[in-house]
Amino acid sequence: MLRALKSKRVTELRSQQQLRYSDQTIVITIIRSRRRRRKLSLQVGRSGVVLRAPFSTLQADIDEMLIRNRDWICQRQQVVFLQQGDVLRFQSGELHDYLGAPLALRIVAGARRAKVLAGDGELCVHGVNDDSEQVRRVLQQWYLRQAQQLFAERLALWASRLPWLSGVPELRLRRMRSRWGSCSAEGRICLNTHLIKADLRCIDYVIVHELCHIQEFNHSPRFYALMTEAMPEWRQCKAELEAVGARIVRE
Length: 251
Ligand SMILES: [Zn+2]
Fold this sequence. Notes:
With 251 residues, this protein is an alpha/beta fold. 38% of the residues lie in helices and 26% in strands. InterPro entries: UTP_pyrophosphatase-like, YgjP-like_metallopeptidase.
């Protein structure tokens, strides 16, 4: 006997869609509800961007609402991001930096092995439960692997461009709260793992700074002349990094 499932009437339907805005992708959670009569509402908070709509709202009306409000959504998201405060909660919807862009954390249970995928405005952590300590650990390992790969590539690239270097210096990574990098007397470079959350320009700026120390082991005018020669826009990159600094060293 094949019995038709007696379905419980769905009162709420959740879905997600993406809103593209200049070079950003913002994830919007759409909640269609039978309890809601007429109006569409838009909320930007710690759990992300949520649009609530009556159950039978046309997709075209939702799209129109999002496009009409995209300046506001973007500005609000920045404000929420800056107000997130010192403590990371590692909960879905929380914004996390990666290569200079805010990504909304999404925790996906079910996969056998923990893995992290970044893209389309999201940072998806698969194979973990809602346990924030576990999410934190998985994310930290992922950031470290991304940093190891990218920093080594950028270090090799800049080392090949700077005439005083004959090879690629040895690289170490450390999670630090108060410095971006260092250069030892033996010419070994140490970079802060958290830099992977900053824009590539900022990462390059720190690498170039440390590579200049191999030639000038001080912060003399000669050192800064070397910086300007190697990377004419370094002051701007430094200011950019300082602007996001406190945020990206949070753990
Ligand atoms: Zn220095």
